[in-house]
Amino acid sequence: MDSLDLLANGLAAALTPENLLYAVIGVLLGTFVGVLPGIGPAMAVALLLPVTFGLEPTQAFIMFAGIYYGGMYGGSTTSILLNTPGESSSVMTAIEGNKMAKKGRAAQALATAAIGSFIAGTIGTMLVVFFAPALAKIAVEIGAPSFFAIIVLAMVLVTSLLGASRLRGFISLFLGLTFGLVGLDLNTGQPRLSFDQPLLADRLDIVIVAVGIFALGEALWVAAHLRRKPLEIIPVGQPWMGKDDWGRSWKPWLRGTAIGFPFGAVPAGGAETPTFLSYVLERKLSKKKDEFGNGAIEGVAGPEAANNASAAGTFVPLLAMGIPVTATSAVMLAALTSYGIQPGPQLMTDQADLVWTLLASLLIGNALLLIINLPMAPLWAKLLSIPRPYLYSGILFFATLGAYAANQQPFDVFLLLVFGLVGFMMRRFALPVLPLIIGVILGPLMETRFREALAISGGDVSGLFNESLALVVYAIAVLVIVTPLVLRMVRPATTGPSGPADSEDKELVER
Amino acid sequence: MSTTHENTAPAPAHDRAAPAQDRAQYGVAALLAAVGAYTIYDATTLTVGFGDPVGPRVFPYVIGSTMVVLGLLLVVATVRGDKPEGEQGEDVDLTQPADWLTVAKLVGVLLFTIVTIDWLGWAISGGLLFAGAAWSLGSRTTIRDLIVGLVMSVASWYGFYVGLGIPLTPGIGEGIL
């Protein structure tokens, strides 16, 4: 009840005409940028950060909520119409969705993706509303040792569960930690790794790092390997679904939601695993197995719902503990910090108004997305044929604008270029991007907690282990590292991912 | 995604005819080691205060030495035939060799922007950036590119000034904008 009251207050704050306008602008901008080929939601949010520079935090967050869901919606449009997923979590959508489009059912694929995303996003956000305050209540009690342990766990999870190679994950993480060192030491005020450059002593602006790695790095990488042939784009009409499509979609939507949310909330492997699991589950449950691989609507409905539910789920660790587990939520956190808001367990209590307005805006943004965008799908699809030189020049233009607008220093554009080249290198050598961003954001926070914990214990290492929660968290971290190694020794054959979602699954379907 | 890539290392190890290693990875390993070594060196120049049991050096030491170790591990992995798979994408065609000229042109355009932005101002510099980048990427409609770029940069200048209250550098456009 308590949560619902707070949410109602948040809705009241978010529903002023002016704020609704920001939500609409956010949804439209997010979809616009998200539909553009080569731009995923993380890059969409990163590129659009500067648009919110002059806004109040509340309004900025309302816009972000719209941009966030808009960017994700745009991504599924690209997957279905181009068969080229912008990010790994849309792979499953691309498989079935594009087959449907080729059979002339693009409108139905788009509709089931959009409605499924709406349902999953709404249920997911409501679950966040109920979960996050409870978690935050625990989180406020968390001392420096446990908080340090949780950050270690978050890094271990992000680095070793995502991506193909642990070595590359750790290389990326430690690159990020190195970038996180740059600037004044938080305790003694001495500049570290700043090459006597006063502009570097002020710490790296996370917005510049994110825009450089995501946007410029991607643009340079594509420029080096630009496909010279035009892509084949499937025309769409108005998205709609027949009675049969509804009947086949609603269960996958709910099941996908049930699978996706826990994966986002527990930080266990981003959106890839749940979308994959949802796809496998739908194929297993389907009575028309032969349709899978040839455009089964369940194969779009389930994974799209799972994708959005896990995206909503990532707000639980983000709001309750200030820990981002996806690239997009990392960029959102960067946006929070640029408003001087400290990520961490105190967020829900210190910035309660802001958090509840954000949660309310997520619901509003999600609904607006459906109302505004479903009729506009054919229009968005036109964006796919934008000439590539203009598209990537535009990304360069807006990335530079974003880096420059914050402080109006040419040096910041230089830093953008440096991080763009780092991003290029990472794509060339298959280094995952997320661990680096996590390292940059959480590294300084981690050091603060570490030094806090040891200052309390007078430098004794036991200061890191004197909370039982910390011990539990370390135990989980060790399990995460050791289990796959043991499994590989015991069973050399590939083991499919196992889903802890069964119980929640039933629970939700019965509601 | 992850299921297909899991065991990349062992397969191509015995194939002697094709290049068994990705030599460029040694460069990455060297870079990692150099960054790590410099981080350690930089930490030695810091002074540790009193009453600060950890001090500003511990994190750089740990991070720097781990970077060196990761560099060495990458060398080992490369020797054993590990090959990275470049990132796929909607407009990416990895069957062609990398087009370094285009990348160099884009970097040049950005460097030009960095050097001139204070002098020319965003409205002009941004327009040139767009047109220059479009040219680098193969567009040959220069006049149109310049017009599109100028419209975008002037519009974004006014958008930031009017909408967000942030006056971007006017440069030589001062008084006109």
What does this structure look like?
The complex is a heterodimer of chains A (511) and B (177). Chain A is mostly helical and 511 residues long. Chain A has one domain. Chain A has 22 helices and two strands. In chain A, strands 1-2 form a two-stranded antiparallel ribbon. The longest helix of chain A is centred in the N-terminal third of the chain and has 36 residues. The radius of gyration of chain A is 22 Å and the shape is globular. By secondary structure, chain B is mainly α. Chain B folds into two domains: 56 residues; 74 residues, no CATH class. Chain B contains six helices and no strands. In chain B, helix 2 packs antiparallel against helix 3 and helix 5 runs antiparallel to helix 6. The longest helix of chain B is centred in the middle third of the chain and has 22 residues. Chain B is flat. The N terminus of chain B is likely disordered. Classes of the chains: A mainly alpha (511), B mainly alpha (177). Chains A and B meet through helix 8, helix 10, helix 12, helix 18 and helix 19 of A and helix 1, helix 2, helix 3, helix 4 and helix 5 of B. Chain A: InterPro entries: DUF112_TM. Chain A: It comes from Nocardioides daedukensis.
Give structural attributes.
heterodimer; A: 511 residues; mainly alpha; two-stranded antiparallel sheet; 22 helices; 1% strand; globular; B: 177 residues; 2 domains; 59% helix; 0% strand; flat; disordered N terminus; transmembrane helix (chain A); membrane (chain A); DUF112_TM (chain A); Putative tricarboxylic transport membrane protein (chain A); transmembrane (chain A)
Tell the overall outline of chain A. globular
Shape of chain B: flat
Series of secondary-structure elements of chain B, N-terminal to C-terminal: HHHHHH
Estimate the mean pLDDT confidence of chain A: 80
List low-pLDDT spans of chain B.
1-17
Query: How many structural domains of chain A?
Result: 1
